[in-house]
Amino acid sequence: MKVRVAARTDIGRARQRNEDAYLVHEPLFAVADGMGGHRGGDVASSMALESLSIPEQDSADTSAALVEDIKEANRRVLERGEAERDLRGMGTTLTAVVTEGEKAYLAHVGDSRAYLLRDGSLQQLTEDHTLVQRMVREGRLTPEEAAHHPQRSIITRALGVEDEVPVDQLTLDIHAGDRLLLCTDGLTGAVSKQRIQEVLEQEADPDRAVERLVEEANQAGGDDNITVVLLDFHDDQAVGEDEGSGRTVAVVPDRSPPSSSRDAAPRQEGFPRGEPLTAVMSAVPAPAGAVAEPGAPSKEEAPSPPSPAPPRRIRWKRVLLWVAVAIVLVVGVLVGGRAYIDRQWYVGVSSGRVAIYNGIPTKALGYRLSHVEETTDIDAASAERLQPYRDLAGGITARSLNDARTIVARIRGDLATQPGGTG
Ligand code: MN
Asked: How far, in Å, is the centroid of ligand 1 from the Cα of 316?
């Protein structure tokens, strides 16, 4: 099977930097979506790709080797994130595929995706490791609700977060004419599956298809970095295509601003099989800015900048913590408020009679915050005709139940001394 590949990454329209990365080095293809404060996201996604090695031809177990590489990537990202202050909390998604003859081996962690276009239908091959996807599986959200959920980018699995990471695996039988799409959530969060399929069906040329997908995501707002890798599979004999875009290339994202030309990313060829890709990736200039040495933190110590915020997408534990804190606060206010209300008393009117209320003479959110404690036989209208009690209907505040009873006794006494008062 021959592979023709097109790939593109774009910063989008809202982000300061592109933390996505991709790798194209036949037979290995991958996308990674990094996250983390400062330059953490860049480093994490690049490191993950650097940890992947080009499989040996006819290696015993391609799939197992790929998963081992990914687990190693997880350890490296985690260790470096723990060692370097400004990389703390970094992480990355990774969706990778190795092609071998008629087979494609996929491995996946996070919320980037792989899709297969075959015989006019587009099928999502990977499952998002996100909170909303978990809720969909549990029947608590519909897929439609999940697609627009405000917390849809909270991921439950990433490289660089925990010591061990489960890696999803899938082996695919490849047919001539298949199109395999790897992409980050910058595409899938902005462009519907339906629309992605339409573009893939309209654009036979993979370069053009990839370009169109990125355009569509940007037109939808470009809220996130967008990365797309598209593999077109052809029969071995069906060659004769433009050799230019089918060659073996290793590419990392162009970190420069989005205005740069589409081929600005460095391309290298002819890497021996079995060699780790680190050699390829190191051809890319290291990110600017001093790197804190793990053994020499003193330099950083004195006027240390505020430590970087943990990555937005793996803060779900923190989100849960804040939800818990919020619940405690609300309950506290309710309980405290309740205790306060229970200590309040007033004299008011109930069914036309003077009555003693416990609580405060108001409503909150439609709930009365008081109840009648004691009723009397005193006619309220008569009492309100007396100057001191004209606001009786609105409630006359008392300091205690006894105080309220004293007020009632005074009303009774004042009415008794009035001509025509009740008695
Ligand atoms: Mn993203």
From this structure: 16
pTM for the predicted model, two decimal places:
0.60
So what's the pLDDT on residue 252?
A: 55
Q: How far apart are CA 344 and CA 368, in angstroms?
A: 13
Surrounding residues of ion ligand 1, Cβ less than 5 A: 33, 184-186, 224
Q: Which residues of the chain have pLDDT under 50?
A: 241-251, 254-305, 307, 310, 421-423
- Residue 182 is given by DSSP the state E
Contact 223, 175 (CB under 8 A): no
Report CA-CA distances (Å) from 328 to 34, 81, 318, 331, 338.
Answer: 34, 33, 15, 5, 15
Q: Is 395 helix (H, G, I), strand (E, B) or coil?
A: coil
Positions of E strands within 37-102: 91-92, 94-100
Ligand 1 center to residue 32 CA distance, Å? 9
Closest CA to 217 of 3, 5, 20: 20
Which of helix, strand or coil describes residue 309?
coil
The CA-atom distances, in angstroms, between 77 and each of 44, 169, 172, 285, 401 are 6, 21, 28, 19, 66
DSSP 39: T
Quick: pLDDT tens for 315-334.
667 777 888 888 888 888 87
Each residue of 68-90: b (16+ CB within 10 Å) or e?
ebbbebbebbbebbeebbbbbbb
CA angle 90, 262, 224 (to 5 degrees): 35
| pLDDT for position 58 | 65
